[in-house]
Amino acid sequence: MASQPESSLPERSKGEQGAEGAAPSKSALKKAAKEKEKAEKAAKRQQQEQQEREKAAQNDTASHLYGPMVYSSSSVPTGRYIEDLGDLNAVEEETKVTIEARVYSTRKQSAKLSFLVIGEGDHTIQAVVAEGGEQKISRQMIKWCGGINTESIVRITGLVKKPFEEIKSTSITKYELHVQEIFMVSEAPEQLPIQRKDCNQPPPTEEEGNAEKEGLINVSLKGRLDNRVISLRASAQQAIIELQSEVSFLFAEYMRKHKFKWIQPSYLAGAATEGGAGVFEIKYFETKAYLTQSPQFFKQMAIAGDMKRVCINGPVFRAENSNTKRHLTEFTGLDFEMTIQNHYHEVLSFGEQLMIFIIRALQTRPECQHLVNIIKKAGYPEAGDFQLPPGDEAVRITFAEAKKMLKESGYDIGEDEMEDIDTAQEKALGALILSKHHTDFYTIDKYPRTLRPFYTHPDPTNPLLTNSYDFFMRGQEIMSGAQRIHNYDLLCQNMREKGLDPLAEGFRHYTDAFRYGCAPHGGGGLGLNRIVQFFLGLRDVREATLFPRDPGRLAP
Amino acid sequence: MASQPESSLPERSKGEQGAEGAAPSKSALKKAAKEKEKAEKAAKRQQQEQQEREKAAQNDTASHLYGPMVYSSSSVPTGRYIEDLGDLNAVEEETKVTIEARVYSTRKQSAKLSFLVIGEGDHTIQAVVAEGGEQKISRQMIKWCGGINTESIVRITGLVKKPFEEIKSTSITKYELHVQEIFMVSEAPEQLPIQRKDCNQPPPTEEEGNAEKEGLINVSLKGRLDNRVISLRASAQQAIIELQSEVSFLFAEYMRKHKFKWIQPSYLAGAATEGGAGVFEIKYFETKAYLTQSPQFFKQMAIAGDMKRVCINGPVFRAENSNTKRHLTEFTGLDFEMTIQNHYHEVLSFGEQLMIFIIRALQTRPECQHLVNIIKKAGYPEAGDFQLPPGDEAVRITFAEAKKMLKESGYDIGEDEMEDIDTAQEKALGALILSKHHTDFYTIDKYPRTLRPFYTHPDPTNPLLTNSYDFFMRGQEIMSGAQRIHNYDLLCQNMREKGLDPLAEGFRHYTDAFRYGCAPHGGGGLGLNRIVQFFLGLRDVREATLFPRDPGRLAP
Predict the structure, then answer these.
(1) Which residues of A touch B192 (CB under 8 A)?
(2) Where is the composition biased (Basic and acidic residues) (chains A, B) (predicted)?
(3) Is the peptide bond prior to A453 cis by the omega test (within 30 degrees of 0)?
(4) In what helix (H) or strand (E) does residue A93 lie, and over which residues does it extend?
(5) How many angstroms away from the CA of B317 is the closest CA of chain A?
(6) Which of A263, A285, A551 sits opposite B551 (nearest CB)?
(7) Are B116 and B148 in contact (CB under 8 A)?
(8) Cβ neighbours of residue B233 under 8 Å, at least 6 residues apart?
């Protein structure tokens, strides 16, 4: 590991980060010109090196066995191509294989012997380059191998052999790879801003800072996100993103099975609803447009167009200047909307069963469990311990019952019965429900009318309440849903009571949908990033987001 | 059908449409106030009517059998609930059923007898309301039924019976429904801007205008899109959108089977790439941001982060002032990116097999064929006649071969071998390939370097060409793809040659990804809307889009 720098600080200065989004300045242009000059010099140097290498190669018996990878239409692997490094465990001894993976470390033992650790995620194998042999491996080749920068990608052909003794430093312990050919596919630089291996554990809390932990440097969340391409190579970080992929596929699977149609809403709207607060404004040719805040209106218009059951997987944009561990300006929404036959609890039950299906699959399907185990092994304290209700019977309480539970446990829930439960109380409630009902997933039903948007259907039996619900995982909200108002007059009245004009440009098409006749319906919008965050118990939603966006981050 | 207006013109004036996206004017506010007054008057009138109705009800033996639908937590259907109207064909005679669907038409035969046509998409059944019987159905109830506005949604409980003779005007011919109870779930107004039934055929060409066709009024595409909620109820229009849903599910199915990870790119970027042309600018708190033009950079960064195979289903934004039948400012991209082992044709073959899988499924799976048949029956001339290559063996020609084919058929392909094939020639080529190779789907490989973006990998054997390809359906492009440059120096050089600065804010994170080492890779981006458009042979991509956006349309 000698070639890896000790410091995990990014190469780039903070000043440069801050310039994100600005137009290229004079100094940037100057810098670009300088860079060009540098590149030309580098090219010249490369050429010289190439010539020197060619000279040396005249005395090199192995010059055809290593060096830059050259692709031709006939370039085929000379050994059996192993797609996943982990599969090496399953091949027979003495098999000739070809692999393509990263160099995790190099060690030049002597002029006659080099060792490399070749890796792909959690799978690693030791590769041995030894002088002589059938191939007549040269000292030049051994030197070249010992000098490969870590994180470079190489293609190796060689023989799978049993080592003298079991190798303890790699995941594949029973084999090593005796290199016959090694070509450079993609060369990494000598210095990287952060190291992959320093990202394979939970990022430090703000108090911990960039502290070394158990002998490892632990890169801050900011450092990881600034250098996403490198931190993503850390197996735990990649597993988190892959688990998000699983949730998307599971959502699609469940929706398809239940005859939902996958629709594409529009993300551009001609007028801002709700007065423009929380909505991003766009220059749209000669006029303005807005990024929609949610696909709510489009889902409901599809229902009014008789589509019965629709679902969406797409971005949700929020122009909210919130800088918390669970807010982003852009996240992924898993939305569904369905007609109701008799009672809005049909929708609530459907949503509960959907969530139980997804979480149960994450806990039981081998491909998901594999990912959870990687994350758990990397030291995430809550990964793998998520509790579903016994017998998969969803636990559902009303808003009033939730407040009562909090009060009985000594929490100050205020005088007003309609006052919201705050974030801290929500978390406390999560703990109360876990101890009473043994589940980390539950729903709260029947929220007060004052707390819900204008399109939420009132409770016909109590005008102060609504037919609405939130879903929770570990005491934190992952979904908001409700029966929606399908009666045009009631909708207009409700909007006016909330100070909105049902005939305004931004609402007209939406309200018309109900004027033209619409079936009773309800639905919900799940936050994909939050599902992953709370299932795994991650501290920050950014960890569960491939390229997070917040008021201060617009790159990479 | 007497209650349906003869005109299909929208109620709203064109002037109002043009105000899309503008801030509410004084006249709009005045109008809103007027509207409020109107609503209050209407409420008063409703109250009076209600009182009158209650009076009349005192002499009405059937007053509990009809009227507004009232929901209570115990409201359950009194008959067997039939979810899909088409399922009525399968029930036994004399079954008591409950259905909820739209009133397509009403006919008051006499004071003692009313007929209704109840419909759901293409499925229709005749409902009979006759005086007397066990329920003591009253003349008031019959009058009420005869006066229901079409497109209203009603809940009916009644007996399924054989009619005296087969009914020719409904899709269910062997049964009629003898109404015992009928409640109003959602009332449509007397006048609608367009009629559902006038949208169930291809929209008129510009030459045809809003002309009557075979006795039906044919609503223009603009009229349909302005009133999407109504036109979407037309079974052919809904089937087109449902077919789009099938393509999304099929894409996900194929990707999952081939171990792709479903990633979420960001749609917001801090700097505009390629100089900002074609990119929408956003106000982002105190700074600016841009809507990404494609997920290209994010897909490639995921590959550089060792994700191997990634796919995306999401919006693509293009700030291009194109007003054609195949361009939108927002469409859905089905994107994939994968590492390459030996040759970029691995990616090309994968893409071809993906498309053949999707199209073959659309042609053979019963749920898809059902949709194609609805569209075909509605008179779309090319629906259902799409040709796949014999034996599902993809037809692949090079750009040079394509030009040669055109030249041999007498087309002027210009002097320059590197000159692009224009849209008209592409269509002609589609016809040539159909006649020669009997396929509507094919690919063109090896485009000139001058025609492709900077990240396209050059052809190692010919510096004028690239390892890139387009996919075509019926002579029109549905996908662009290529091997991408994974070598940092080559990428920077290529960017500089195209006048781009690899170190500019908008590129820095992207180019760094390759500096840190990246495996060879390639991919493509399919246009979901175009796949549906060209598979069905629709004239305009807007027909294959639920809520289309173009330079002149930002609503509904």
Answers:
(1) 516
(2) 32-57
(3) no
(4) none
(5) 9
(6) A285
(7) yes
(8) A305, A306, B102, B121, B151, B196, B199
Which domains does chain B carry? 78-186 (2.40.50.140), 198-233 (no CATH), 236-544 (3.30.930.10)
Mark the ranges of chain B whose per-residue pLDDT is less than 50: 1-24, 74
Contact at CB, B503 and A556, closer than 8 angstroms: no
Give the model's pLDDT for residue A4: 36
Residue A446: strand, helix, or coil: coil
Taking a C-beta distance cutoff of 8 angstroms, is the pair A479, A363 a contact?
A: no
CB-nearest to B492 from A39, A71, A515 is A39
Whole-prediction pTM value?
0.91
Alpha carbon distance A254, A313 (integer Å): 13
Residues 6+ apart with CB under 8 A from A355: A394, A441, A471, A478, A479, A526
Contacts of A29 (CB under 8 A, 6+ apart): B501
The token pair that represents B344 in the structure block: 């970029």
Beta-ladder partners of A408: none
Q: Is residue B344 a contact partner of residue B465, using CB atoms and an 8 Å limit?
A: no
What does the pLDDT average to over A38-47? Answer: 72
For the beta carbon of residue A38, count every other beta carbon within 10 angstroms: 10
Residues A382-438 pLDDT 10s:
999 999 999 999 999 999 999 999 999 999 998 999 999 999 999 999 999 999 999
All residues at 6 or more sequence positions from A262 whose CB lies less than 8 Å from its CB, including other chains: A252, A255, A256, A310, A311, A312, A313, B245, B248, B249
- Cβ distance A551 to B503 less than 8 Å, yes or no, reads no
**B442, B477 contact by CB (below 8 A):** no
Rounded to the nearest 10 degrees, what angle do helices A345-364 and A528-536 cross at?
A: 50
Interface touch A35/B151, C-beta < 8 Å: no
